[in-house]
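I have a small job for you when you get a moment. Can you supply me with one protein entry, sequence and fold together? It will help me judge whether the discrete encoding reads sensibly. Write everything out right here, beneath this request:
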Amino acid sequence: MICDINKQYKLPVEKIVYTITDNGSNFVKAFKEFGVELRPINECDSDDGSDSDSDSNDSIIALGPQFRSVTPRLSKHFPCASHTLNLLASTDFNKILNSSSQDIKDIHKRSFQRCTQLWNKCNRPKSAEVVNEVINASLITPCITRWNSLYDSVTKLLQHKTNLAELCYRLKIPTILSEEVEYLEEYAKLMRPIAEAIDFLQGEKTMYFGTTS
């Protein structure tokens, strides 16, 4: 597919510096198998016939012109930095959580169950009106397709932690207890550097490829 896209836009491999994709295993496998860097034959030939250590460690393959048209080739691969950090904040965090003590697992589960009940209410018109009445604002709700959405939702909720008891009472849902609020604050503190880095990487004015390459 990637080769077809390059061909469609008339982009020879030699002109592509890097191809950026997510961390999907299919991409990793494709670039591992076909992501070779080509250089002219005359650069690979050596007059003295000796091979240096650096040459033996290079993953550079020189192919003759007769093979270039039939061998699928991909440029160098660079995994998306934002996606990598998002995996750190989700998949890797969950792995650490699963290896933690039962007390940590319980407080995490309980805290986010309370939050989820509140967020679900925010998606209902009448309940959303109650939220606006109590905190004079709307809450952000998580979206699985939007990076940082869980962090953003938690931090927005914590901005109104003094009103949570009244809000939960008005919405007729279990109150978010002080120890659960404390856990959410620790969660937000832990995720803040990752979330800020993702926001920076997604910027359009101050972010350049050279920042991560």
User: Anything to note?
Assistant: The chain has two domains: 2-79, 89-211.
